[in-house]
Structures are given as C-alpha cells and as structure tokens.
Amino acid sequence: MSGNVQLLDDTLAAARSEGRAALIAYLPAGFPTVTGGIEAVKAALDGGADIVEVGLPHSDPVLDGPVIQTADDIALRGGVKIADVMRTVREAHEATGKPILVMTYWNPIDRYGVERFTAELAEAGGAGCILPDLPVQESALWREHADKHGLATVFVVAPSSRDARLAEITAAGSGFVYAASLMGVTGTRESVGAQAEDLVRRTRTTTDTPVCVGLGVSNAVQAAEVARFADGVIVGSAFVKRMLDAPDDAAGLEGVRALAADLAKGVRGQA
Known about the structure:
12 helices, globular, alpha/beta
C-alpha cells in the first residue's frame, strides 16, 4: 500500500468545494493506552473530523503545551513505541477511510531510520508527516523518501517567519502548510486571531497549497472564526483535555466525539 497523500489532497479540496474549512484533530498515540488511543482517533473522525494527526509521544516535547505533555507522559510510561504509532495509523485509516498523518519531532525518526519510517508509514496507509522541528534546509533526505512512498511533508510556519522564509518553506512542503499561532505569548485571543489571519494571508502569497491553522481552538465559535480565513482548523489540546478530564475511558471517547461534532458545525459556519 502506498501513502495516501492524494487522499489528503482530495479531502482538503472537497472541504473547499463545500465552502468550508477542513477540521483536523490531533491525538497522541498510546493515550490513554494504545487501543484507547486508536478508539479516540476513530471517535474524532466519527464525530466529524476530516483528518487526524496522530502524535508520536516524545520525552522532550518542546513545542507542546502542558495538556499534550501530560498525555505524552502517560503514553511513554505505558511503553508506547513507533510500532504502536503505525498500528494506530493503520487501524484508524482502515476503519474510517480518512487521511491520517503522523506529527513527530525529528529525533525519533532519525534514530529509527528515515527509509524504515517512511516505508512503514506508507504501508500503514498514512497520508504523511508533520515535522515541526525539521528545518527545510536539512530536509532533503526525508523528502526524498517521503516522495518515494507517496507521503505528504507538512512544515510549520509561524508569525515570526519572514516572507522569504515562508516562500522557502512552502516550496518544499506538500499536503498543507501548518500555520502555528503563538498562543499564550501574544495576549488576547482577538490579537492572536489577527496575527494568524495575517500569517495565512502572507503564506498564501507564496503557494496554492492549503493553509491550516493551529490556534488553540477549543469550541465551535472559535473554529468558525478561524475557518473564515484558513483552509483547515487544527485542534489538539481541547480533544486531549476531554480525555484527561473524563471519569473513565468511555466518557472520554464520548467527549471526543461530541467535541468533534461541535467543531464540525463551527467550520461549517453553524456555530
């Protein structure tokens, strides 16, 4: 089985043809258990997410907030391995037919082996990888193997990225561009939204690739705000928090499903 980059492209194009943003959920593999994490991914997709990013838990998640760090720690203490990440991708994709990406720091891939990682992700039906800490200028080996296996390479841009840098990043990436807003640094949500909107506008001057925003969105109203100017709305911590706060696993899955349904209304302007 080759990678599913075409499925990712088609999913984003279908959302655009419906006049809406895509809803992209993030959930870490192995949380609360490997099987529980697979069920959570399926619950998000069943509830209304178009795409899921499966996080590869890392011991030093420098770009993740405390909610995702807590979930990563639970997964790591449970012994999650890269094989479990691949199993999560495979079972969620086979059950739903929807595109599943992996979000990971570079170090675990480098240790595992780029060729091995890309081959296994493609074989599992994965659509690609989001690599938040891999500099574009050091990404040639990764992109060579990702292209060979039909996998998207999603890079992250930030409000601090200068225009020339944005052009360099978007020229190298595929699937979509992950526009990260500096949540918690820039103050009020209104100012963060304005900063994200400006970043999307600047990024679009460099590429026709969809631009999706990860903004700390946690409800339908916020999803609708971001969906006004972005091709996709990425939600992570809010899903993880539903599971962390739930009294048991069943309630956690129901919380994920309900949040996905709420956010799906938001990206359709029904909030």
